[in-house]
Every structure is written in C-alpha cells, then in structure tokens.
Amino acid sequence: MSALTPPTDMPTPTTDKITQAAMETIYLCKFRVSMDGEWLCLRELDDISLTPDPEPTHEDPNYLMANERMNLMNMAKLSIKGLIESALNLGRTLDSDYAPLQQFFVVMEHCLKHGLKAKKTFLGQNKSFWGPLELVEKLVPEAGEITASVKDLPGLKTPVGRGRAWLRLALMQKKLSEYMKALINKKELLSEFYEPNALMMEEEGAIIAGLLVGLNVIDANFCMKGEDLDSQVGVIDFSMYLKDGNSTKGSEGDGQITAILDQKNYVEELNRHLNATVNNLQAKVDALEKSNTKLTEELAVANNRIITLQEEMERVKEESSYILESNRKGTKQDRTADGQALSEARKHLKEETQLRLDVEKELEMQISMRQEMELAMKMLEKDVCEKQDALVSLRQQLDDLRALKHELSFKLQSSDLGVKQKSELNSRLEEKTNQMAATIKQLEQSEKDLVKQAKTLNCAASKLIPKHHH
Predict the structure, then answer these.
(1) DSSP state, residue 194
(2) What is the DSSP string of 249-301?
(3) Please, where are the H alpha helices in 40-142?
C-alpha cells in the first residue's frame, strides 16, 4: 500500500475523500504508521521491502507487537497534539460531543488494550483494561475518588464502560498523566494484566504518559449519566489526521461554526423530545385500541344478551297470549301471576337496553379519542420531518462555513505578512524620527548659543558706541 500522505504542495483532501477514508476499517497490526511533519503516512507491511539481513519476519509476534506499539505511539502523538491545538484555538470548555476529544479516548483505549491478557470466563475470553486502572487508587490515593464515582454510576454494566468513564473523569481532574506514570512505574503489578511486550510494559507507554502532561491545559466537562459507554465501538478515524494541522483559524469562522453546532445540537435535542412524544402517543393509541377491542367484545356480548332477551320476551308473549286464550275462564290469581311475569320480563329488557346504550356511548367516545390521537401523531410526524429538513440545511451551512473558514485562513496568512512588513517600515520611520528630533534639539541648542553671543555682542557694541561718540 503506497503512502497516503500527499506532498506538502498538494491541497487538503476533499470532504468526500475524508468521509470515504473514515468509513474504511484499518487494522493497525497490518500497517506501519509514521509521521511526515504534520501528515500521517500509512504503509502496508507487505509493501515494505526488507534488507536481506537476518531481521524478524512479518509473522514474528515480537516484530508485529513492536510495530503495533510504534503505530499506537504515533497515533497518540497526533491525537494529543491536535486536541491541544484545536482546544486552545477554540477557547472554550470541551464536552463529550467534540470529535477530536472522542478520538483521543479511542486512541487511549487502544493503547490500554494492547497486549492485554485474556481472562477466560464461562462466556469465553474477556479482555478489559478496567483491571489495571483499578490499581491506580492503590498507588495514588487521589484516584480513589474517581474509582468510587465510576462504581456508583448506575448506567455502567460492563468493565469496558467503567474503564471509559475512568478515563473521562481523570481528564476532567487533570491527573491523567500522573496516574498513567504511577501505573507504568509499577511493572511488577502490570505483569498480571499485560504481556511482556505490551505497550504499557515498554518505553512507548512511558512516552505516551509524558505526552499526556500537555492535556492539563484543557478544560473538559462530561455528563456521563445519559451516555452509553458500554456499547460504543472504538474505531480510530484516520481521516482526522490526513490534513495539515498548522492552518490558522479565523475567529469569525469559529464563531459561525460554533453557532451552527449549537443550532444542530438544539435541533437534535428537539428531535429526540419529539420522538419520545411520538412513542408515548403510540403507546396511548395502542392502549386505546386494546380498550376499544375490549369494549367491542363487551358490546357484542350485550347485543347477544339483548337478542336472547327479545327472543325470550317474544316467547313469553306467545305463551301469555296462548294462556289468555286458553284460560279466559281461569281464576283472577292466575291472571295476576302471568302479569307479574310479563312485567318482570319487560323490566329486565329495559335494563339490558339501557346497558347497551351506555356501552355504545362509551365506544363512540373511545373512537373520537382515537381519531384525535391519530391527528396529533400526523402533526408530530410533520413537525419531525420539518426539523429533519432544517437539520440537513444546517449541515449544508456547516460545510459552507468550513470552506469559508479555509479561505479566510489563507487570507489571514497573507494579511499577517503585510502587517509584518508595515511594522518593519514603521520601526524604520520611528528611528528616523528619533534622529530628526535629536538633530532639532542640537539646532535649538546652537540657536540659544547664537542668541547669547548676539546679546554679548550687542552689549559690547552699546558700550563702544558711546565712547566713540565722545
């Protein structure tokens, strides 16, 4: 694989190339990472010609581990340097959504996982860097507060999530470098967790721990209660380091990008709230549909009972008419009993009819409520679509602002050169002005001397003139 680093006179890769590079998964064990100035170079091991001297082959585990250590150290250098420069230029507190900060944690996670011994469990082999980080509180008592805070977080369920939370809290405390140095100095404790040729056991780990001192100038603020640290996938985004990091950033472009990012965060938060509202309304609609189904079943049962009672009433009417016709000469007591049975049947029929009316009324109310809920859901879906369109427009504005920012940086460089030339010319003019001022002072002094001599001559002349006149 040829070097991905373009020459210094070539322009920065376009957004499409960066996006394509970010989508590709690159495995560090198959590549050699090197830095050419501020550029990142990747070379595949199979493309590197080796001398015929007896050197380790590509299949040698020690050679591969050494290559991985060098790759991770170079990535850590780029990540820490880029994070410090971007944070100082940004001039505000960093949060968990800042992309360079996310990539820094991904690189640190890969460094801590390198050469980690696999622990066999009933679910298989498990690799976690949380075990070594727990040792820090034994070496530095101040780290006990971070470890206790990580264990008290309710949303963390895996050791990987707890390790990621520990790294974020240590960075917020500005003690990450101190903790890593204390851990690396105790290799007899690390040998329980790491292989002998792991990064934490070699010189590269000490170099990375020294580089972490520069992060103490960064103010970071994280809210980890709502962040899912267990299921995140830590993949290094090489596209962030495939460009020049020395370009100056205009304050106007930074302000516009910050405003666009704030608008984007607001729209995404509003979109999350709308999705939650839609989910709640969908749950209510489902509950209403279940209630409607239950009421429909009850109505069907009531209708069946009414039909049964009507049939029974008709039968009673027929029987009563038959009895009346056959027993016209019967006793008055028998007629009274038949009348009571008929009245009870009518009363029962009236009650069942009223129950049916009540059930139908309740069903109509539930149907109207369901129609209202469906209308509300349609309006919410329309609002969500509008917010998504606005988000796409904001992203387009962000891309335009990035291009404008790049153009402003070149203009700013040219303007800086002009200002430097003007300052040099100004210094020369000031030097000439000082010389002229000194010359003027000398002339003024000589003028005063001449005035004094003139006065002396006048006095001498006034004395000589009267004598001559006499």
Answers:
(1) B
(2) --HHHHHHHHHHHHHHHHHHHHHHHHHHHHHHHHHHHHHHHHHHHHHHHHHHH
(3) 61-90, 99-113, 130-134, 136-139
Amino acid found at 143: A
Give the separation between CA 407 and CA 11, rounded to whole angstroms.
12
Whole-number Cα distances in Å, 37 to 5, 8, 77, 100, 246: 10, 9, 12, 19, 10
If DSSP codes are grouped into helix, strand and coil, which group holds residue 243? coil
**Burial tier of 261 (Cβ tally within 10 Å: 0-12, 13-18, 19+):** middle
CA distance 188 to 350: 91
Asked if residues 389 and 271 have their Cβ atoms less than 8 Å apart, the reply is no
Tell me how far apart the alpha carbons of residues 61 and 421 are, in angstroms, rounded to a whole number.
Answer: 57
Full-model pTM: 0.44
Contact 179, 140 (CB under 8 A): yes
As to burial, measured by CB atoms within 10 angstroms (0-12 exposed, 13-18 middle, 19+ buried), residue 458 is exposed
Candidate from 127-136, 361-370, 377-386 with smallest mean pLDDT? 127-136
Question: Which pLDDT band, with edges at 50, 70 and 90, does 87 fall under?
Answer: confident
- What is the bridge-based pairing of β-strands 39-44 and 31-36? antiparallel
Q: Do residues 350 and 303 touch, judged by C-beta distance below 8 A?
A: no
Distance of alpha carbon 439 from the chain centroid: 67
Question: What is the DSSP code (8-state) at residue 9?
Answer: T
Task: Tell me how far apart the terminal alpha carbons of the chain are, to the nearest angstrom.
Answer: 118
Both structure tokens of 317? 């009417």
Rounded-to-integer distance, Cα 143 and Cα 138, Å: 8
pLDDT top residue among 2 and 205: 205
Cα separation of 382 and 278, whole Å?
Answer: 11
DSSP for 417-446, please give it. Answer: HHHHHHHHHHHHHHHHHHHHHHHHHHHHHH
